[in-house]
Amino acid sequence: MALTLTCPVCGKRNGYEFRYGGEDKGPRPAEEGLTPRAWCDYVHMNTCTVGIQKEWWCHRDGCGAWFTTFRDTTKNLEVKPPEAENGQA
Amino acid sequence: MDRLKQLPTLRINTDEPLTLKYRRKTYRGAAGDTVATALYAGGVRIFGRSLKYHRPRGLYSLDGECSNTCMAVDGIPNVRTENTLLKDGMVVDAQNVKGSANFDWLGFIDKLDWMMPAGFYYKTMHKPAAVWPVAMKQIRKAAGLGVISPDDEMKGRYDEQYLTAEVTVIGGGPAGMAAALAAAESGHRVVLLESRPHLGGCFDYRVTTNGQGTHLYERARELAEQVKQTANIRRFEHAAMVGAYNNNLITAFQVGKAGDGFTERYIEIRSASVVVATGCIERPLLFEHNERPGVMQVGCAHRLARTYGILPGKEAVFSVGHDLGLEAAVDLSDLGVKIACVADIREDGQRPDLLEALAERDIPVLGGWVATHAHGGKTVKKATLSTVEGTVRRQFPCDLLVASAGLTPVSGPFILAQAGMGYDRRTGYFLPTGLPEKMFPAGRITGINDPDAIEASGRLAGLEAAAAAGADVTQAAAAARQAVAALPGPERGCKLVTAPVKGRKSFICFDEDATVKSVKQAIDAGFDVPELVKRYAAVGLGPGQSGIPGHNLPLFVAKYTASTGTPKPTTVRPPLVPTYIATYAGYNHHMFKRTPLHDSQKADGGIFRNIGVWQRARYFSEDFDCKEEILNVRNNVGMLDGSTLGKFRIHGPDALKALQRVYVSDMSKVTEGRIKYSAMCNDDGCVIDDGVVTKLGENDYCFTTSTGRAGQASEWIRYHTRFDNWDFHIVNLTDSMGVINLSGPNARKVLAKAVNIDVSNEAFPFSGYREFFIRETIPVRAMRLGFVGELSYELHVPASYMQTVWDMLKEAGAEFGIRNFGVETQNVLRMEKCHIILGQESEQRTNLLDVGLGFLWDRTKSDAKTVGAVALRQAENDPGRLTLVGIRMADDTRAARDGAIIVDTKVRGYVATMRKSFTTGEAVGMALVESQLAGIDTRLQIFEDECNGELLDARVVPMPFYDPEGERMKL
Amino acid sequence: MFGKRKPLWGTKKRLKSSYDAVIIGGGLHGLAAAYYLAKEHGLTDVAILEKRYIGFGGAGRNTAIVRANQRTQENVPLYKEALDLWPVLTKELNFNLMFNNCGNLNLMHSEAAMKAARMTIATAQFHGVESHLIDAKEAKALVPALNISEDITFPIHGAMYHPPGGIVRHDAVVWGLAKGCAKHGVHIHQQTEATGILSAGGRITGVDTARGRIQTPRVLVSAGGYSAGIMYHMLGIKLPISVLTIQAMVTQPLKPILDHVVSSGAYHCYANQTLKGEIATGAHMDPWPNYTTQNTAHYIKHQAEALSDWLPCLRGVKFMRIWGGLADMTPDMAPVMDGNDPIDGLYMDCGWGYFGFKSCSAVGKYMAEYMATGNCPEMLKPFHLRRYENHRLMGETAALVNYTPDN
């Protein structure tokens, strides 16, 4: 495969310049009243989406920025954000 | 054999003779010959023996689809001699023979095929169990083709090229050249890959004419000349495409020619769009003994004559299913081969002019006939032909049987690029059902054969590819589309699956000796999809990949299972052409980081080890226990190159917030002039890093990380603050600053001589931080630490001044007995102090609290959402976790080895680090044990590897082992 | 000698509307569980649902290495049992699984690695599994092709030598187990995709397939790399899994040159010679999740560079083909085997990463026991899903958990 990703700073680059940072699970939850299960869900559990998922990447061998992008896990290609996400943005 | 010297199509230069040696005999060839053509010209017909049945094998295709002509060349095994250019003085040898290729003692195995039906391995040799290991040894010996020895060395220079292009064209035949020329018109950068040593493809050797009356070989040379004249086409000849990946990444390797600076070259092209003009190979004809030497494909026979000037045989029978066969028969007849007969699977649809030409030469054509049997023990002597239904048979004596069922497209690039493949009923080809993005087919791969149509489709594909890469070629493309439409389209292909035979010796896959019969057996056993047959009957898994069986296997499976659906192709995998590991490896340089003191450390006798990305001096003598180094630090003073330490500055309005997020301590308590030791955890509470933080000013800090974490520190902090929109900057100073660790009771005396600030304990106490200049020039950041447990200064110095400062200190310390110490000494010194090294005294199962660093954790700052704090709180009172303890052996002369385990009936922990301390004389160390065993004086039993069940005794003791009050670091 | 050829795993069966147990995934774990359910527990009314054909996934894509030299005491006995089962299964199934008991060498490239190996070796020896630490010269004596010079990227300091390990023919295990399943009445449904898992009142009630609905009180999800996706998309259950592509490749076949399985963590590379003579090699994975099984240009090159260093005689050998498979990685490099939580009758056997082959026989045996009795066997207890929320990761990898799936 030949993954390319689009860094918001550096543009479209070879996928191997980047580091994958996991599925997007939102900001860190508040610590107050956090159960072990809820915490584990945030830290370890994945949806393992078959299809398009929003995920974090770091342009490690470039500018160092963290950013989210969408990728189709069945094709291993970066894709445009789905419509719904666009609407919210 | 004399060559046909006057042919205008020749690719050999007989004025440049070359020789090779094979079985002590010298063979003569010419520049441009392949090893196999030179041997063939010298009368060699059998090149080696087949994998399983030791059947004789000869020249079949000339393009390397099977391993028939694989030989050892200059000691390198499995060289495809049919497409390896001859170099003067080569020495070749046959493979998989006991004796010689002509007389192989193991040839009898061919008669035993009945003992080896498909999958027989799975059903035999396991009863009784003792048989199998013996049988397996024999199987291993019998298997395999080439021979290598452990000290073989692959000579040569291996190059790498990484290209970007707007358009890459795979295939330098007429369609590919037309595509490249068309794409280049828009000014795009074009790369053209051709696997043969010269451009030309299917035009290169043919003397028929195109619509303009030009001989095809002339047209090929015209196009090649235009390509050469076009500056924005980079052409790579003798460069086989081996991989195609999504996003149009193409890989290839090129074989260097005489005068090139490389033996082979790995090429990787990132291309905006791709034209696939790989053309066709021939679909092998399935009949009895269809791979007997003397049986060859149309292109092979034709090119032997036209390209290499060798008449492939004296008397030939043709059994073909495509007009190229008729064309070759006419041409070979004109060149002097006697053609006994041409059997054409097709009853009609042949080009009339070719039939006329054959009639003019009195060559009989049998429409609806096919070869069923090649006779002859080692080479072909006779051929049996029959009607396709098998009703009538005739025999012809011959020494050459040109056999081919038709064409099959080289669709590998599409399959590799994840295109779905489907069966096309008109052409009988497997073609992409949907094209990968920005990938365009051109030429014969689409099923066309008309020379003008081939060029026109190439031009159209080239323009489409240029457009996909951003060029505006609307008008030109429209014209090209019209041109294509006006020319003949895809032709009906020959659909015959097998000749009317039972198939015991009809080989579907040459490389693995798989026959029609063995495939039937596999299907009968329930392996009824091609991918399963492939595995069970071993078809297409040999060196030739699926070049030979790729098309026939799915056709046959569909026919035999009377599958109602269409045939499904098996997949192909990179590399499409087997490629040397040396070629893939390329330059293969070793990359390491060296500290600014590397050379001087080396000169001082440092013994280096690779530690992470660095090379570090681990020892300074052959005594790997480092007794003298250790005692010198304890008693005098030593110096360590600590430059690999991660060094960072973080500043900006939210710098403190970021530190609060990642460090477990309350970082608001860091004050100027003082250092703070703290740790970072991951979200499980495991310590992932520790280091010291110093404050330079408001929201301006420096921090150090362990050597291994330096690469990730910045990424880590930014990751854990990615939702916060905080404003801070991180500067990685790891490489720009070196670190000198000056340790030992005499350290202050040394430093005092070298610098002109007050280094007294009052002015610069333990945990202090100072910035000053040496000789008003060299900026130094100095901190008083205690990792090794002695009076100790850590000096951070610009990398460019490191050697200077080091030398000054060394000179100043001479009178105090200063000497180097290495990483291992540091390891022992800190172990005696029970200062942990992450990964050595910690692991995945231990958190901050377990390894005794709980004192660093400030639980009051929950607003900071400190990484790790949640997990620490949740696991805080959990019993039975691994806990770090100090241990001492019952017998001080016998330290347990690092990694020994602590056991009762189960494993309860393990020894992380243990040494016999030169300082205290005790055998002490640190261990991770289940918490119920962590109480002082708990007796532990230690199980070492190779202890034969004899356990060692130890007990838990207080930490640290050396200077428990910590007075020496505060001296 | 071979008799009339019958389909190895029976004629094609009609998909019934109910089964006592349904197993999703016709790979090694599913086949083994079905085999033992039928053979040991009399639960013969079992359906295996396979979307493509048996052995399509990891079962046919791994490089067939078996060993029992794991790091922790929770893992070693399980793998030891799996290793001991190969000869037993060969006999039981009357199918030659071609166990080549050639032994494994795990190369060590630093003093620290040698120490880490000692702990693993001591654990193995403590459990009666043969494993030794040997130095570079001893390693060279076993594998003459090794380059033990100092002048390579990761000089070889020694190796963990594990004689009981070796290679088994992976396809043979698939087909042999399928044969055994069929013999005991299990229905293997190929080209039958499970499309939904049904439950009511906290109990499993059935499975939807592309060919119709099946009622069943028990479902085992053992679909290799596809398990986590199935669990989430069909049941909304998230797992601590990242599905990565792992690649392997073979060279052209050679006469015997490598007599052991040799692997190197530092180089991310292992090599062994198949019975056919090919050098099979692989290991590294692209550290981002995907379901493509695509191979990469990057990796075949990396592999060549690594082999050039530590097995330099292979430089004159050609790579013949490379392929990819899925590895469902967990943060602690140990699987998740659990049942009846949160749904009664739902069993999962996943998160095997790249260890699914070597463990399949023993795991099938214990998962069958679990499914038949409803009680978790002692051997499987440490592998429950809740260990992650209890902050009790397994320690199978010494490395610390990071935020990326490959740690």
What attributes characterize this protein structure?
heterotrimer, A: 89 residues, alpha+beta, 4-stranded antiparallel β-sheet, 2 helices, globular, B: 971 residues, Ubiquitin-like (UB roll), FAD/NAD(P)-binding domain, 7-stranded mixed β-sheet, 23 helices, 48 strands, 22% helix, 27% strand
What does this structure look like?
The complex is a heterotrimer of chains A (89), B (971) and C (407). Chain A has one domain (4-88): Folate-binding superfamily (Folate-binding fold). Helix content of chain A is 16%, strand content 34%. Chain A contains 2 helices and 6 strands. In chain A, the strands form 2 sheets. In chain A, strands 3-4-5-6 form a 4-stranded antiparallel sheet, with no helix packed on it. In chain A, strands 1-2 form a two-stranded antiparallel ribbon. Chain B has 971 residues and is of the alpha+beta class. Chain B has 8 domains: 13-107, Roll (Ubiquitin-like (UB roll)); 116-142, no CATH class; 158-281 and 410-486, 3-Layer(bba) Sandwich (FAD/NAD(P)-binding domain); 287-404, FAD/NAD(P)-binding domain; 507-580, no CATH class; 598-643 and 736-829, Probable tRNA modification gtpase trme, domain 1 (Gyrase A, domain 2), CATH 3.30.1360.120; 646-732, Aminomethyltransferase beta-barrel domains (Alpha-Beta Plaits); 879-970, Elongation Factor Tu (Ef-tu), domain 3 (Beta Barrel), CATH 2.40.30. In chain B, the strands form 12 sheets. In chain B, strands 8, 9, 10, 11, 12, 13 and 26 form a 7-stranded mixed sheet that branches. In chain B, strands 39-40-41-38-32-42 form a 6-stranded mixed sheet. A 6-stranded antiparallel barrel of chain B has the order 43-46-45-44-47-48. In chain B, helix 18 crosses helix 19 (713-720) and helix 20 packs across helix 21 (802-813). Chain C has 2 domains: 21-62 and 171-240 and 332-387, FAD/NAD(P)-binding domain, CATH 3.50.50; 104-163 and 242-329, D-Amino Acid Oxidase, Chain A, domain 2. Chain C is built from 9 helices and 19 strands. In chain C, strand 14 (261-264) and strand 15 (269-273) form a beta hairpin. The mean pLDDT of chain C is 94. The A-B interface holds A 1-4, 14, 19, 21, 26-28, 30-32, 34, 36, 39, 43, 56, 58, 60, 64-66, 75-77 and B 245-249, 270, 418, 683-684, 714-715, 718-720, 722-724, 862, 865, 869-871, 873-874.
